[in-house]
């Protein structure tokens, strides 16, 4: 299995990095390393995490999975041999901020 990031997920990660640079510059690299390490684990254990309930309206409940790493919520989807990182966001944010158009 191989992990790939969608453009949306890469943009999300850039926004988080910008936020961490201001809010927590001393831990920015540690947080980034934790998110990337999780994505490597997905290559070995693609079913890590839980089904994403807030996006079940646009996909079957088990199609999108999520895990939290610190305060980062990582949403991924298994598509054959590819594990797509669909979105990365601060888990403290409003669930309505999940982008359903990116989940299709």
Produce a short descriptive summary.
The protein is α+β, with helices and mostly antiparallel strands. The chain has helices spanning 7-23, 28-44, and strands spanning 2-5, 50-51, 64-69, 72-79, 82-90.
How would you characterize this protein structure?
The protein is α+β, with helices and mostly antiparallel strands. The protein has one domain (2-94): 2-Layer Sandwich (YaeB-like fold). It contains 2 helices and 5 strands. It has helices at residues 7-23, 28-44; strands at 2-5, 50-51, 64-69, 72-79, 82-90. The chain has a 5-stranded mixed beta sheet. A hairpin with a 2-residue loop joins strand 3 (64-69) and strand 4. The protein is globular. The two termini are 21 Å apart.
- Based on the structure given, which CATH architecture is correct? 2-Layer Sandwich
> What is the CA–CA distance across the termini?
21 Å
Number of E-state strands: 5
- CATH topology label: YaeB-like fold
Overall CATH class: Alpha Beta
Main β-sheet, in a few words?
Answer: 5 strands, mixed
Number of helices: 2
Helix residue percentage: 25-40%
Question: Mean pLDDT, nearest integer?
Answer: 83
Q: How many discrete structural domains?
A: 1
User: CATH-wise, what's the superfamily?
Assistant: RelE-like
Query: Beta-sheet strand percentage?
Result: 25-35%
Strand neighbour order, sheet with most strands: 1-5-4-3-2
- Spans of at least 5 consecutive residues with low confidence: none
- N-to-C SSE string, H for helix and E for strand: EHHEEEE
